[in-house]
């Protein structure tokens, strides 16, 4: 009986808001979309050192709920929706003008990918690249080992946890095109800074990193 109801349940889910269940043919109804848009940062550039970092918003409210849906409740459609938001924000700000670049999503561990069935950051990157026309490169940066979850670790423990956890394997293209790293959430920056070390050793030019959310100040 349950299996027979699945197509109907999926159809109903596609016609309701992901957050409030109001009738909607989009991921969010007009009310939740308005609330989300109010959370967008007034300026995308968060920092310039040790790498340039751009972010769409802060990790709270509507955006936090949407990221939770993507990461833990299998809502891939929400991931694509947020990637479109990133793309629109990027094109409006135009921080790197018409510079040619490759977008490299931060890989997750094999265990987490097996559990979720996908890398949520790659979903963001796919729709971001479709929106901007940039090249998606999800093959060059590899995660070499599973690591402990970063949540709850001190900044020092986070850094130690990620040492030698990443590998850049595409040396033939290292100096041809700049790389824009893309991640869902920036907390302490330990993941991105460790990747920065790896890419610098491989002579890969890093233009910066783009994330959906940073901690709320």
What key attributes describe this structure?
217 residues; alpha/beta; Rossmann fold; 2 domains; globular
CATH class of the largest domain: Alpha Beta
Mean pLDDT: 87
Largest sheet: 6 strands, mixed
Principal-axis shape equals globular
Report the uncertain regions. Answer: none
Q: What is the straight-line distance between the termini?
A: 49 Å
Description:
A hairpin with a 5-residue loop joins β1 and β2 (53-58). This protein has helices spanning 2-14, 30-37, 61-72, 76-93, 110-116, 120-132, 155-162, 190-201, and strands spanning 45-47, 53-58, 101-105, 135-136, 141-143, 166-168, 178-185, 206-214. It is of the alpha/beta class and 217 residues long. It folds into 2 domains: 1-38, no CATH class; 43-214, 3-Layer(aba) Sandwich (Rossmann fold). The strands form 2 sheets. It has a 6-stranded mixed β-sheet. Strands 5-6 form a two-stranded antiparallel sheet. 34% of the residues are buried. The chain is globular. It has 8 helices and 8 strands; from the N terminus they run ααββααβααββαββαβ. α4 (76-93) crosses α6.
